[in-house]
Amino acid sequence: MIEAVLPGERLDVLERVVVSPATGRFTALPPQTVTTEGEIVLRGQAVGMIDGPDGSVIVESPFTGFLMGILAFPGERIREGEPVAWRRTTEPA
């Protein structure tokens, strides 16, 4: 059986979150490194650090897009998988 796709059933959301790869305290990289809100951040570009019991881990953007905001406060305790920044992607889904 073929299912019909009705208008409005497909949603392409451009907003994406960058999540922490580890548990620890978050530190955003300085604006010179990360860029400022509204600037392009490239796939693989570091946006912050998580300092945990096993050392520091870099938080990288998994996609290219506009930095819309950092969601974590400096020094905030973050769990693995928790959002730390959000972007408006320039890559297709």
How would you explain this protein's 3D organization?
The protein is mainly beta. The chain has 1 helix and 8 strands. The strands form 2 sheets. Strands 1-8-6-3 form a 4-stranded antiparallel sheet, with no helix packed on it. The longest helix has 4 residues, at 31-34. It starts with 14 loop residues before the first strand and ends with a strand. The model has no long low-confidence stretch (mean pLDDT 85).
Brief characterization of the structure:
By secondary structure, this protein is mainly beta. The chain has one helix at about 30-35; strands at about 15-20, 25-30, 40, 45-50, 55-60, 65-70, 75-80, 85-90.
Using the CA coordinates, give the radius of gyration.
16 Å
The strands making up the biggest β-sheet line up spatially as 1-8-6-3
Oligomer: single chain
Principal-axes geometry comes out as globular
Task: Kindly report the average pLDDT value.
Answer: 85
Number of E-type strands: 8
If helices are DSSP runs of H or I spanning 4 or more residues, what is the number of helices?
A: 1
Helical coverage, percent range: under 10%
In terms of per-residue confidence, which ranges show pLDDT below 50 for 5 or more consecutive residues? none
Q: Please indicate the percent range of residues in DSSP E strands (runs of 2 or more).
A: 35-45%
User: What's the helix-strand series?
Assistant: EEHEEEEEE
Cα end-to-end separation: 27 Å
How is the main sheet built?
A: 4 strands, antiparallel
- Structural class, by secondary structure, is mainly beta
Considering the chains and any ligands shown, give keywords for the structure:
4-stranded antiparallel sheet, mainly beta, globular, 93 residues
